[in-house]
Every structure is written in C-alpha cells, then in structure tokens.
Design goal:
Blueprint: E1 10-14, H1 17-27, E2 33-38, H2 39-43, H3 46-54, E3 63-68, H4 74-86, E4 91-96, H5 98-113, E5 136-140, E6 152-157, E7 162-167, E8 175-179, H6 188-208, H7 215-234, H8 239-256, H9 263-275, H10 279-293, H11 303-309, E9 318-319, E10 322-323, H12 326-340, H13 357-367, H14 378-388
Helix pairs in contact: 1-3, 4-5, 6-7, 6-8, 6-10, 7-8, 9-10, 9-13, 10-14, 11-12, 13-14
Length: about 400
C-alpha cells in the first residue's frame, strides 16, 4: 500500500468555475497558458465560453491547438509538446473529452522529462528528476470521462499499432473545472452510459481501493448519482442536472483512480482497445458481472455501501428481515436505469466476438501486475467474459 495522497487535485465547481480558473492560473504563476481542445469544443461554443472567462485577465493564450483526434495519438502529443516549448508557454489548459485529457497528460510527461519523442520510452523508464514544472488545468466537456484526476495516461501509436501507458505523478492534474456552460444536451442512452460507468467506478473504488483518501470521493459520487442519474436521463435538457452528473463522473474517477492495475481496468482497456468501442459501456458491463461472480465476498456484504446506494432513489431491499447485500442494491441501480431508457448492453451487442475471449484473457494475464492474484487466471477471466456476453 502506498501512503501518499494520490489525488491531490483541486476542484472548481459552480456557475463561475471558469472565471475562478483565471485566479488559479495566477496563483500558479501562469501567464502564458497553452490551450488544447478538440473539434467538438470549438463547434459547440465551449472554447468561446472559455475565451469570455479569460477576457480581461492578465493571461495571454500563447498557443491554441484544436486539432485533437477522437483518440489520443502520439502525433498529437509530440506536436503539442513542441509547440509548448516554441511558444514559451508555462502551463496547459485541456478543454474537451477523454482524448484531450489523455493527450495533455502525456504531453506533460514529455515536457517534464525534457523528451521530444514518446519512442524514448521504448527503452527507458520515466526519470526521477523533472526538468520543468508543467501545471495542467483540465476543463472537461459534456459528462467528463473519469480520467481527469488519475495519474495514468494512455496514448496510441497508430503507425506501429502500439500503446504507451504511463503511471506517474508527472501526469497529475492541478485543477479540474466543472462548469455548467461546458455541458450540452445528449441522448438519454448516452447519459445512462456515462452514469452507469461512473456508478461502477465509484462502487469499485469504495469496495476495492485500499487508499483511505479515495473512499470519500467514491461516497460523494454515489450520493450525487443517487440524486441526479435518473432525473438527468429523464430531463436531459436541465443544465443543472447535467452539471451534477459531470461532477459525479469526475469524483467517481477520483475515487477509482488508484485502481488502475485492477482487473476491471485491464480488461476494459483490452476490449476497448481491440474493438475501439465505448469505454463506459464496457466498464459498466464488466463491473456488473464482476460483482455477481463475487456474490459471497465479504466485501459485498457491506451494509454501509448498500445503505449508501439505497439512501435515495434505490430503496434498500430486504429479504427475510435482514439487510440486503450490496449486490442487490447494485442490481437495482441497473434495473432503474433500464426502466427509463433502453439500456440493455452486452458485449455481444457491441460487436465483441466470443472467439477472441482467449486472446483477451491471455492479454490481461500477461499485463496484470500481481501474478499471484488467483483471479488473473484463464478460467476466471473466461467465465467473466462469458457472463458479459
């Protein structure tokens, strides 16, 4: 167990969060930030809202890059790192979806190391002594991704079919901004996908994370989701509910962020990488079946989590006069979502092929950090995937 505070991130949440970001920039001594955003942030007016917040401040956006692809690629990472140095920038503002988050985190790793190419890490580990400080401020859009607060980052080399994965404080975030102006109306099924993934991350963080600092974030995320998930699906035009959902996703990611070596993360990465399919759906499916496979696990007998989940929308079940197990309350959340929106995702409906189960299991076994983990075995992983199919 590591005894350091892993999630040393400041949150700005509220109607004037963007304006308060300017204060945080000054507090960190930043005057020439680099803005990195995706095409959606430009088209939907998120970038314009950020400019309005910056207007009148003493910060000068030295360089703007709005060419981030739908997935984080090494071409984008290396281009941003070069532009950062050439423009004399002193911090990065990432505005957009998950690809922006991963791209800016990886660019920060390069810049702190003073390295120009990610291929440097083919043979060398990350060093211990950074050459520069690169504050990173993230402004997620729509419903965020849950990866904003973690110290991990993954980027794709599409030419060599290779993935670079980092787990280092060099990829940490200083400030995450959750502002109501950064959300837009999305279909109810997409909201269900974000919400169930956040719920799964928060529950997993609560159940399996050994870091004492992570549990309060997971609890806060579950409480927010209890209040807002179903109402947000039903009333997706309500901006305040969408903002609460975004905050819940960010907090859930913060509570789960230290479990990057958990089988849930590794299997989700393996499936989403192979098929380029929705990460949120895959994670939500895998978590549901993972806890079903652990029905008799003492951790899942926790009345505290069962009551936390059942405190609001999901009334706590009882059977034979005793408190329900956590599994029953988790199942109730999925059932409640399915009642208001057609959400019945399985791996089979997402294009995953049963013939690839063996390869997926072998991939996770090869990359899993704890080789003594009894669950990192072909029989368990195969059974897990079959249940998700």
């Amino acid at each position: 167990m590591r005894n350091s505070v892993e999630n040393d991130v400041k949150f700005l949440i509220g109607d004037t969060a963007l304006e308060n970001l300017m204060f945080e920039l000054r507090l960190n001594g930043c005057k020439t930030p680099m803005l990195v955003c995706d095409d959606m942030a430009n088209r939907l007016g998120y970038k314009r809202e950020l400019f309005r917040a910056v207007d009148g401040s003493d910060c000068d956006l030295a360089y703007i890059d709005q060419k981030i692809a739908d997935i984080a690629t090494i071409d984008d990472v290396e281009r941003i790192a070069r532009a950062y140095v050439a423009g004399g920038c002193d911090c990065i503002i990432g505005l957009g979806r998950k690809a922006v988050v991963q791209t800016t985190k990886c660019a920060k790793v390069l810049l702190r190391e003073g390295v120009s190419n990610l291929s440097h890490y083919d043979d060398c580990p990350i060093g211990k002594y950074p050459v520069r400080d690169v504050p990173l401020f993230l402004v997620p859009t729509n419903f965020a991704s849950g990866s904003e607060c973690s110290d991990t980052a993954r980027v794709y080399d599409t030419k060599r079919n290779k993935i670079y994965s980092f787990d280092t404080s060099y990829a940490s975030t200083q400030v995450v901004v959750v502002d109501k102006r950064m959300t837009d109306i999305v279909p109810p099924k997409a909201i269900a996908s974000y919400g169930l993934c956040a719920f799964a991350m928060a529950c997993a963080g609560y159940l399996y994370e050994s870091q004492v600092f992570s549990k309060p974030y997971a609890e806060a995320a579950i409480e927010l989701l209890n209040d807002t998930l179903i109402p947000c699906i039903v009333h997706n035009a309500d901006r305040s509910k969408r903002t609460s959902m975004m905050a819940a996703v960010v907090l859930a990611g913060c509570g789960y962020g230290n479990l990057h070596k958990h089988l849930l993360t590794e299997m989700t990465d393996a499936i989403s990488d192979r098929y380029r399919i929705n990460y949120n759906n895959v994670f939500a499916i895998l978590f549901r079946q993972y806890v079903r496979l652990h029905d008799n696990d003492p951790q899942l007998m926790s009345e505290l989590l069962a009551s936390l989940i059942g405190e609001h929308e999901c009334a706590m079940c009882t059977r034979a006069g005793r408190p329900a197990k956590t599994l029953e309350t988790i199942e109730q959340v999925y059932a409640n979502v399915s009642e208001v929106v057609d959400y019945h995702e399985r791996l089979s409906t997402m294009g995953v092929e049963r013939s690839h189960f063996a390869a997926l299991a072998q991939q996770v076994i090869a990359t899993h950090g704890d080789k003594s983990d009894p669950e990192a075995a072909y029989s368990f992983l195969s059974q897990w995937l079959e249940r998700c199919y």
